[in-house]
């Protein structure tokens, strides 16, 4: 009787240990691949003369498809420091990420340091995609067609640099020609300025050289000429390039369906 009891106890102990190893093996496998089958978080970075709310029509469409979307606050102070702020935000997000940049926001996502498997795709929406050493202002002037400089109202800062705004009376025609007038007037009133030094700061090593990219081009953009957008998309080896004919620089506001559809393609 005692012999049977000891044997039964021993067998139970072996079973418990084996089960425990199996359990922990499964747990470790899951921990090692937390993003398997997980939808990426869509992180959207606005550019100059805009704010996070400019992504609202796109976010609504992404949410309806079951995606988590985060519109970050871009400081618009300098490419390097703005990319550091974005890196800090990405560090707080679990799982894979699709980064989306509009306008100057494209320069920021190009300089992000989170080159881990977390960032699975880059989406450029009427955006700058600089190579190392290039600045946004340099790319905007690479081909004729930008009229932004004629519309700017600079505000001097204490460090000798300037904050740049678009004159409210010229905002719609320059930035949002295909947005309803009342909505464009609100956008002009809530625009966030960019520091002039940010537009002239040289980019670092580009994320698009090692991370797949998708490009949406605004066909009637007066900030970044279409030819410049095409040049950057080609150079980056864009997986898919969509041109929205007649779209202004504010294409995420005026044509959110097209923007959301391209993001969804990049998200897989």
UniProtKB/TrEMBL annotation:
GO terms for MF: hydrolase activity
Pfam families on file: Abhydrolase_6
Keywords of this entry: Hydrolase
Residue span(s) of domain AB hydrolase-1: 42-261
InterPro entries: AB_hydrolase_1 (IPR000073), AB_hydrolase_fold (IPR029058), Sec-Metab_Biosynth_Hydrolase (IPR052897)
SUPFAM superfamilies found in the cross-reference section: alpha/beta-Hydrolases
PANTHER family: AB HYDROLASE-1 DOMAIN-CONTAINING PROTEIN-RELATED, ESTERASE_LIPASE_THIOESTERASE DOMAIN-CONTAINING PROTEIN
Name of the protein in its database record: Alpha/beta hydrolase
